[in-house]
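Hey, quick one: can you model this chain's 3D structure?
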Amino acid sequence: MAYLDGIKSVEALDLDGKRVFVRVDFNVPLDNGVITDDFRIKQALPTIQYIIRNGGLPVVASHLGRPKDKPTPEFSMKPVAERLSELLPEREIVLADDCIGEGIVAQTKRLQPGQILLLENLRFYAGEKKGDESFAKALAELADVYVNDAFGTSHRAHASMATMVSHFGENKGAGYLLMKEIEFLGGVVYNPAKPFVAVLGGAKVSDKIAVIESLIEKCDQICIGGAMAYTLMAAKGDSVGKSRVEGDAIDVAKTILAKAANSKCELLLPVDHVVSTALDTTSPCKSVDTITGDDMGLDIGEKTSKLYGDIVRKAKSVFWNGPMGVFENERYAQGTKDVAKAMTESKGTTVVGGGDSAAAIREFGLDDKVTHVSTGGGASLELVEGKKLPGIEILRIA
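Sure thing. Here's the predicted structure for all 398 residues.
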């Protein structure tokens, strides 16, 4: 497909005896230093293992959390190194005490076949987020070949994602995870089998304006849930009670509704709701067709779940991003569960666009029953919008 034009796969690179800088996305959630979800780590393992099997010496790099541009113990890559050792017991994981410098360069040159060098957190340096050339050059000194397998940060023009890549000439390419992300996300956006359905949820319309506008031009139907539905309903003049509404996004919501009405895409809003007067575990909740008074919508209702589920099951391509309700609270998780289940029952290509929807489908134990679960929320949305992602564009060879 066109979106892959000019990008080498890791399989097309000469790896034997070469130090290979592998940019991964190991920005995993931690609870008191313990990794609570290792999905992103597991997704990068095929690329790392391939490099080792083909004689390469992996120098693995990532950021973790939001350190303040300086070494911070709680954001050390140590928990990641420990988890890698558990997932790859046959490999020796070496954790560097830094990510640049003469000592680290020397360490890369001492790497033995089968070893993996994991660099310390890239964001311990301000130059990473700034895309600083001197920091990028220091990183480039650590390797002979560059491989991007970090889709989740490919929308950022950071030093390790974009700036350093120019130092590798044509010795650059995409890992298996990045290729898979491009194939499936690019596929549903640029060449979807019809009917093409999008299910969009989450809190804010303002976060997904460009995504909705882009999908209106491509989709047959868009099913809206989550709090963003109430801003669109308010823009229509529907009663939403005390539901969360973005007051400053009403005009934009009206524009979206008008654009959909003048297109071939049907934009659907919830026809019933699960409501309560407070978001807690004790206030009474109920199902209603119309939200009034002090009630606030916290999940789509049973009729909406059936409507959306039927549409998803009949689709040939489905893109889902964002929960249908406050799924972290079991009382308001059913709509999201129903959409996830419908995704697994579709015979078409089903892609979950990262973020909360990816977390939800994994929590429900259904992630292995859809075509693809993306590792990148923000990156997947930008790709769906039609934006060019710096970390992908820099890999293209003219």
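One thing worth noting: Residues 39-53 form the longest helix (15 residues).
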